[in-house]
């Protein structure tokens, strides 16, 4: 495969899969105290940061660099410019562990702006106003990333560190819901004759409006007292709105097509996570965070990585038993991680370890099956 023909999904899905297995495997040993701390980010700070700004951003990059090309009809980076983006991402992953701190922070915060430029050029040149909102979300993600490092380095108050990660998760959730609303109904309509998945404008406004207000409340909560009843109401309204939004997409008609039902199954974790967040004062934040990040976001990312790799390498859009197994193992990892918060303290660590092993297994299986596809030419001879 010629490097100048490789689209963004190829290198970024590959490095995301490798990072998912290595980073969580590393975290399992660090969690048990079996590895020395890093020279910059370490412990829970490294884990939280890297799952959001390392793994999730890599998958998003692969998807956006490929999808924007299709949405706009304009080229996105390939060849050496794409390789430079991947190198920037990879260098940041090494530096956040090894340091030095200032260099690590600087290199790390450069990646999202670089990605923004890569997709902004085709979006603006094609006057593709529908996707301006994606650039806004990436811009806000970049700001939260800078705030994270500034807080960790001591230039901003230390409590901003936690807020920055939560805000980043919320922004990724908004982008997640935006992409899901495009691909899940479209894929269902194209693959299932007679299906009629739809959107209701009032429900779209309520779904995204509630998520935006949740993010605004998170930012405001560090400076003003946000009434608990207001936060809880926002979480419940958002959960119900996204549940009804999913119902309009007719997920029940996808049951015979695993490559399709993986996506609504993943999306169903979003309203569940929002309801768990409403209960956070009682059950803690770790429950909703892992329901959202492992069940919803990572589940949809794995399903999309499978589908887009099959489609963009010229293969039939059919999930193999291996694909189904990897997805179900990831879902099991999410369920076990959520349950870990409710078991006796003596069982918490074993549950976390089992969940982590299942995560590593899911993405390890993905790598074994899809790495050959990601590193070889399309089977139909077309560029991409």
Structural class: mainly alpha
Assembly status: single chain
The CATH homologous superfamily is called Cytochrome c oxidase-like, subunit I domain
Q: H/E order of the elements?
A: HHHHHHHHHHHHH
Per DSSP, the total helix count is 13
Residue share in helix? over 70%
Mean pLDDT: 94
- Radius of gyration, whole Å: 20 Å
> Uncertain regions: pLDDT < 50 for 5+ in a row?
none
The global form is: globular
CATH topology, by name, is: Cytochrome C Oxidase, Chain A
Query: What top-tier CATH class fits best?
Result: Mainly Alpha
Distance between the amino and carboxyl termini: 9 Å
Q: How would a crystallographer describe the biggest sheet?
A: none
Q: Assess the beta-strand content as a share of residues.
A: under 5%
Domain count: 1
> Count the strands?
0
CATH architecture: Up-down Bundle
Summarize the entry for a quick read.
The chain has 384 residues and is mostly helical. The protein contains 13 helices and no strands.
Give a verbal description of the structure.
The protein has 384 residues and is mostly helical. It has one domain (3-374): Cytochrome c oxidase-like, subunit I domain (Cytochrome C Oxidase, Chain A, Up-down Bundle). The protein has 13 helices and no strands. It has helices at residues 9-31, 43-72, 79-98, 101-125, 132-152, 159-191, 201-220, 228-248, 258-278, 280-283, 285-312, 321-339, 345-374. Helix 11 runs antiparallel to helix 12 (321-339). The termini are close together. 45% of the residues are buried.
């Amino acid at each position: 495969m010629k490097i100048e023909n490789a689209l963004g999904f190829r290198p970024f899905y590959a490095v995301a899969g490798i990072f998912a297995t290595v980073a969580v495997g590393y975290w399992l040993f660090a969690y048990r105290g079996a590895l020395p701390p890093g020279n910059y980010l370490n412990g829970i700070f490294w884990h939280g940061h890297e799952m959001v700004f390392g793994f999730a951003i890599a998958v998003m990059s692969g998807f956006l660099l490929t999808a924007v090309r299709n949405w706009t009809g304009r080229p996105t980076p390939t060849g050496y410019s794409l390789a430079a983006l991947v190198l920037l991402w990879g260098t940041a992953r090494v530096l956040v562990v090894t340091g030095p701190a200032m260099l690590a922070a600087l290199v790390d915060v450069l990646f999202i702006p670089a990605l923004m430029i890569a997709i902004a050029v085709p979006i603006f040149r094609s006057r593709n106003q529908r996707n301006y909102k994606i650039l806004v979300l990436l811009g806000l993600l970049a700001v939260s990333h800078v705030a994270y490092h500034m807080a960790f380095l001591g230039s901003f108050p230390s409590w901003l560190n936690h807020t920055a990660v939560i805000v980043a998760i919320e922004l990724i959730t908004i982008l997640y819901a935006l992409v899901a609303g495009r691909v899940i109904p479209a894929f269902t309509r194209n693959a299932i004759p007679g299906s009629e998945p739809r959107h209701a404008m009032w429900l779209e406004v309520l779904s995204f409006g509630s998520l935006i207000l949740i993010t605004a409340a998170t930012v405001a909560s560090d400076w003003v007292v946000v009434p608990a009843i207001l936060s809880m109401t926002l979480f419940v309204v958002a959960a119900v709105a996204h549940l009804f939004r999913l119902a309009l997409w007719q997920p029940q008609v996808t049951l015979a097509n695993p490559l399709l039902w993986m996506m609504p199954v993943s999306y169903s974790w979003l309203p569940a996570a929002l309801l768990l967040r409403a209960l956070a004062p009682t059950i803690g934040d770790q429950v909703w965070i892992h329901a959202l990040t492992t069940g919803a976001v990572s589940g949809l990312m794995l399903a999309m990585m499978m589908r887009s790799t099959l489609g963009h390498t010229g293969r039939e859009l059919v999930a193999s038993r291996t694909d189904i197994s990897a997805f179900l193992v990831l879902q099991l990892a999410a369920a076990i991680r959520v349950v870990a918060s409710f078991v006796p303290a003596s069982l918490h660590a074993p549950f976390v370890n089992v969940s982590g092993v299942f995560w590593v297994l899911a993405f390890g299986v993905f790598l074994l099956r899809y790495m050959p596809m990601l590193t070889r030419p399309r089977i139909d001879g077309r560029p991409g």
